[in-house]
Design brief:
Elements: H1 8-24, H2 35-55, H3 59-85, H4 91-118
Helix pairs in contact: 1-2, 1-4, 2-3, 3-4
């Protein structure tokens, strides 16, 4: 089994979760079950899928969960753009978070390329 704590992708995803939770505290109350929840769940999904993939015994499962984590990272980027356009967060905060999500996605993409090259 793999140790998710040794992966740069996990470190980035974990930091992103905390930053997203912090930033969404200021969202309008009526968004509690809407965009706030969606953005938080998508960010948690990135790290969670990395952890679950690392716990799987097959390389195919590991890769599949990393693919899902990558998709969630891109989902977070889109949801941040919505939040900024709706003025739920300052554009510079959304941009900084989107940059974190993009870096996480890029690291995951590199990891996936590396894993696929081995097979």
């Amino acid at each position: 089994m793999r140790d998710h704590r040794k992966l740069r992708a996990f470190e980035l995803a974990d930091a992103l979760v905390l930053a997203v939770y912090d930033a969404t505290r200021q969202f309008p109350r009526e968004e509690q079950y809407g965009l706030t929840s969606q953005l938080r769940r998508a960010s948690v999904s990135i790290a969670s899928n990395i952890v679950e993939g690392c716990a799987r015994s097959s390389s195919a499962d590991y890769t599949r969960f990393l693919d899902m984590a990558f998709g969630s990272a891109r989902e977070v980027e889109y949801q941040l753009s919505i939040a900024a356009r709706l003025s739920y967060m300052p554009p510079e905060v959304a941009a900084a978070l989107a940059k974190q999500a993009d870096e996480t996605a890029r690291v995951l993409s590199g990891l996936l390329r590396s894993l696929r090259a081995k097979t």
